[in-house]
Specification:
Structural class of chain A: alpha+beta
CATH architecture of chain A: Roll
Largest interface: A-B, 31 and 48 residues
Distance between the termini of chain B: 34 Å
Strand content of chain A: 25-35%
Largest sheet of chain B: 6 strands, mixed
Number of strands of chain B: 17
Helix content of chain A: 10-25%
Structural class of chain B: alpha+beta
Number of domains of chain B: 3
Oligomer: heterodimer
Largest sheet of chain A: 5 strands, mixed
CATH class of the largest domain in chain B: Alpha Beta
CATH class of chain A: Alpha Beta
Shape of chain A: globular
Mean pLDDT of chain B: 93
CATH superfamily of chain A: Beta-grasp domain
Low-confidence stretches of chain B: 447-455
Strand content of chain B: 5-15%
CATH superfamily of the largest domain in chain B: Aldehyde ferredoxin oxidoreductase, N-terminal domain
Helix content of chain B: 25-40%
Low-confidence stretches of chain A: none
Radius of gyration of chain A: 13 Å
CATH topology of chain A: Ubiquitin-like (UB roll)
Order of helices and strands of chain A: EHEEHEEEEH
Chain lengths: 94, 575
């Protein structure tokens, strides 16, 4: 049986979601465990529009993300300010 | 040689001297902090005759470099009892630089109850009685009165009624290009100015020679590359101009680091109602401005004009930290009510972070109910009235917590902790604990790839790498605070190394220097050591570098705790 995730989009993605008539949060049925790129394909959101995917409050690159039914998921585009991209684990330093 | 102007409010005398040699190579925070460490008695009473208040523009202030219009204000803080640098936009700093004024220093205390206006022109500085009508007046109206009297384009630094009352959360407000308000907010420097009976400082740069550039062509080239870094980066080129700093509400909420109900949780269900995305939509629907620069030459333009329901201007510089403190930490799910509060903070002249956090502590004390917008606004208006409760509120979270016998008071060194839960964003927690400024998120703000030595990703919920991260962020920030640049340039130079190189090259071109990135790091370390040295002589020890005990409680949704040992925390300043 398909399960769903609770999806949010931030900044310009919130506008995209609004244009599509999606609520905040938007419930999305997912077949099973998915990768980040598979999720973006399902949502028809371009990879270049997403810097990180939050899965249950933890930020990760789309390529490293795994999403399953029952998860709380959020998409953040490029543009999250400064040190938080390091402090929240968006950004590799060095 | 740049001018160093000392205004002695005790003797009512002005002394204009050449910049002393020991301060010649300094600017911005570097100058204010090393000056305070050098000339202010660390054990002095912050509101007494021995404290000194200094204004200093940065290395690049007044040049054509983008985002270079910031001013550093320094003194011993009446809020923390330690050294303070408080940074602001507005028009004041650029006028100082164009007039070749390295620093304005306000010393001594006058006798009597009267307030004064210090007027600075190319002829020097004069001390005049303040117009009676502006005493007790809110800052918005008082700036209009002063610009009507002294000229529509004069720069204005002013204290509101809170500063007149010498409340320890009082700020110093500065007129922006539209005569609205920017603030040197943190640390109660408005109370220092109030103690010296200076209601306002006006600066008229008529006849100013302008800033000289030693190597104009090199400067132009570096400036162009620096501007390119800012305009092409998604943070400074797109996100901040559209959504302001308030885009962080939803991000921190998602990360579980948005302190809610006086730091009881890191997430709430209503965050989006007060977040940057909602705010931008409200501004657009009311014909406000989603983007606005706080000083001439700002190209990030993260400020805005937030209008009320009748499409009349209500506030600007409507920042994430203020919105967080009321919207999440005090549970006020009402963006308009928060905007009215923000305007009142600016008008009465208090730090919007300190006072907004204090509102949450007032709710903790049971003075008003959690989330009650009307009660919140009524409470904030008590400050203007000068009632006992208003004075307590205007004296900060620590004061209110003490008056009501609370232990759940989010402060470090008596300064309110801002908008990032230290349990879920551990690096910023180390900065809150250890910065000489008291809990200050901007103390660890600047990042540059070529000066950070931290490798790999840092897990915000774990301890690995956090000590080094906090240390390097604080060092880089102290240096950037000396440039006169807005700290938000760090968002771009984090990712675009040439932006950082161009910044250093602009300083070299202006002064005919040959600084390297290592010199910038060394400057940051020198500043931090001077600040910490002052605090040590004022009586601070490592025991003051600690977070409140309640952070030992788990913070939802990640159920993380503040778990650094004392020894680990003390490593941050081991350099």
């Amino acid at each position: 049986m398909a399960k769903s995730i609770e999806l949010r989009g931030f900044m310009e993605l919130s506008e995209l979601f609004r244009e599509r008539g999606w609520n905040t949060p938007h419930e999305v049925a997912v077949p099973d465990t998915m990768t980040g790129p598979e999720l973006l394909a399902l949502l028809d959101v371009g990879r270049e529009r997403v810097e990180v995917i939050f899965v249950n409050g933890k930020a990760t690159s789309p390529e490293a993300a795994t999403v399953a039914g029952g998860d709380r998921v959020a998409l953040a585009p490029p543009g999250v300010p400064g040190p938080y991209r390091v402090l929240l684990g968006f950004k590799k330093m060095g | 040689m740049p001018k160093f102007i000392r205004i002695d409010m005790g003797a009512k005398a002005v002394k204009i001297e050449e910049c002393p040699e020991k301060y010649a190579g300094l600017a911005g925070r570097g100058l204010t902090s090393i000056f305070v460490a050098d000339e202010v008695k660390p054990t002095c009473h912050p509101l007494g005759k021995n404290n000194k208040l200094i204004f200093a523009p940065g290395y690049l202030t007044g040049t054509s470099a983008a985002n270079s219009g910031r001013l550093s204000c320094g003194a011993k803080s009446p809020l923390t009892g330690g050294i303070k640098e408080s940074n602001t936009g507005g028009t004041f700093a650029q006028r100082m630089s164009k007039m070749d004024i390295k620093a304005l220093v306000f010393e001594g205390l006058p006798e009597g109850d009267g307030f004064y206006v210090v007027k600075v022109t190319m002829d020097g500085a004069t001390i005049e009685e303040a117009p009676a009508e502006i005493i007790g007046m809110g800052n918005y109206e008082a700036i209009k009165v002063l610009q009507a009297k002294y000229g529509p384009k004069v720069g204005v630094a002013i204290i509101g009624p809170a500063g007149e009352m010498r409340l320890t959360a009082a700020n110093i407000s500065f007129a922006d290009p539209q005569s609205n308000i920017r603030s040197a907010g943190r640390g109660g420097l408005g109370a220092v100015m109030g103690a010296k009976k200076i209601k306002a400082v006006v600066i008229d740069d008529t006849g100013a020679p302008g800033v000289t550039i030693a190597n104009p062509e090199a400067f132009k080239d570096a400036s162009k590359r620096f501007t390119n870094a800012l305009t092409t980066h998604p943070v400074t080129g797109q996100a901040l101009p559209k959504y302001g700093t308030n885009i962080l509400i939803n991000i921190l909420n998602e990360a579980g680091g948005l302190p809610t109900k006086n730091f009881r949780s890191g997430r709430n269900e209503w965050a989006n109602n007060v977040g940057g995305e909602t705010m931008a939509a409200v501004i657009e629907s009311r014909k406000g401005k989603t983007t606005h620069g706080c000083h001439a030459g700002c190209i990030i333009r993260c400020s805005q004009h937030y209008n009320d329901k009748d499409e009349k201007y209500l506030t600007s510089g409507f920042e994430y930290e203020t919105i967080w403190a009321l919207g999440a930490n005090a549970c006020v799910d009402d963006l308009d009510a928060i905007a009215y509060a923000d305007r009142e903070f600016d008008d009465v002249g208090v730090d919007s972070i300190e006072t907004a956090v204090t509102v949450g502590v007032a709710m903790e004390a049971g003075i008003i109910p959690w989330g009650d917008a009307k009660a919140m606004l009524d409470l904030i208006l008590e400050i203007r009235k000068g009632t006992p409760l208003g004075r307590i509120l205007g004296s900060g979270a620590g004061a209110l917590g003490q008056m009501y016998g609370l232990s759940r008071v989010p402060t470090v060194k008596n300064q309110a902790i801002p908008a990032y839960d230290p349990r879920a964003v551990k690096g910023v927690g180390l900065t809150y604990a250890t910065t000489p400024m008291g809990a200050d998120h901007t103390a660890g703000y600047a990042v540059a790839t070529n000066i950070l030595k931290v490798g790999g990703f840092v897990d915000p919920l774990g301890k690995a790498g956090q000590v080094e991260l906090s240390r390097n962020l604080q060092i880089a920030t102290a240096a950037v605070d000396s440039t006169g640049m807005c700290l938000f340039i760090a968002f771009a130079i984090l990712d675009i190394a040439d932006g950082f190189n161009a910044l250093v090259e602009m300083i070299n071109a202006r002064y005919n220097l040959s600084l390297t990135g290592d010199d910038v790091v060394a400057l940051g370390k020198t500043i931090l050591k001077a600040e910490r040295g002052f605090n040590e002589r004022a009586g601070f020890t490592k025991a003051h570098d600690r977070l409140p005990e309640f952070f030992e409680e788990p913070c939802a949704p990640h159920n993380v705790t503040w778990d650094f040992t004392d020894e680990e925390i003390d490593e941050v300043f081991n350099f």
